[in-house]
Amino acid sequence: MLKGRQFTAEIILWAIRWYLQFPISYRDLARMFSDQGIQVDHTTLFRWIQAYAPELDKRIRPHLRMTNGSWRVDETYIRVKGEWVYLYRAVDASGQTIDFLLSPRWDAAAARRFFRKALKQAHTVNPRTITVDKNAAYPIATKSMKQVGELWRFAKLRQVKFLNNIVEQDHRRIKRLVRPGLGFKSFVTASRRVAGYEAMAMIRKNKVASAPANGMRAQREFIAALFGAAA
């Protein structure tokens, strides 16, 4: 996938790893390259992230550790073209990422889409408890999903805000990464970049056995292998 480009796979993947795990702008990353004698325009870096961030998310999925059945679900906000959109996110009781979904709407239909997306993943299980805030959309979404057998009928929905501190704290990582970019120009670019942020966060949370949280070299080798490149 990385063949036929002006820069080597090593350079492209280095840029992707650094941009998606640290709060840095495209222009600052270009300056870091320049310091090493490599001239990369910030618009080129933007194109790399748009192309490979969602691909990283897709390719790590088969390698993720299983999450448990205690879901903590919440949504946070991201500005796109001057308007707020909603990032649905869920972690399990240990803080491991279950899944995420960027949505232009904040309603029961969006909540159902998020739950359905999460339940399709190989690293998730049908939850025994789902802890949410007081958003009225969640009871509507879970009730309808139970009725058609998409959600385990004995799954317990808990609307207890203080129990969701773990996912609310986890939002901060994403918000910190979004901030240097000064917002998004389109919903598509936001979705692609957020997918990369979340994918790299999963790796940094030790959700991949062969890429430990503090093992930068192992993470580099793992990502290179995902894209069929030598580390």
UniProtKB/TrEMBL annotation:
GO MF term (any one): DNA binding
Stretch forming the signal peptide: none
Domain Integrase catalytic stretches: 58-226
Highest taxon above the source species: Bacteria
Family annotation (InterPro entries): DDE_dom, Integrase_cat-core, IS_Transposase, RNaseH-like_sf, Transpos_IS6
A single GO BP: DNA integration
Pfam families: DDE_Tnp_IS240
Keyword field: DNA recombination, DNA-binding, Transposition
Transmembrane parts of this sequence: none
Name of the protein in question: IS6 family transposase
Species this protein is from: Microvirga tunisiensis
